[in-house]
Amino acid sequence: MLDYATLKVIWWLLVGVLLVGFAIMDGHDMGVGTLLPFVGRSDVERRVVINTVGPHWDGNQVWFITAGGAIFAAWPVVYATAFSGFYWAMMAVLWALFFRPVGFDYRSKIHNATWRSSWDWGLFVGGAVPPLIFGVAFGNLLQGVPFQFDQYLVSSYTGTFWQLLNPFALLAGVVSSAMITMHGGTYLALRTEGAIQRRAVKGALVAAAVMVPAFLAAGLWLRIGGIQGFVITSAIEPGALADPLAKTVARDALGWWLNYQRQPLLWLLPALGAVAPLLAMGLLAARRTGLAFVASSLAIAGVIGTAGAAMFPFVMPSSSMPNASLTVWDSTSSHLTLGLMFWATVIFMPLIIFYTGWAYRVMRGKVTVARIQADEHGAY
Question: What is the mean pLDDT of residues 270-274?
Answer without folding.
Answer: 96
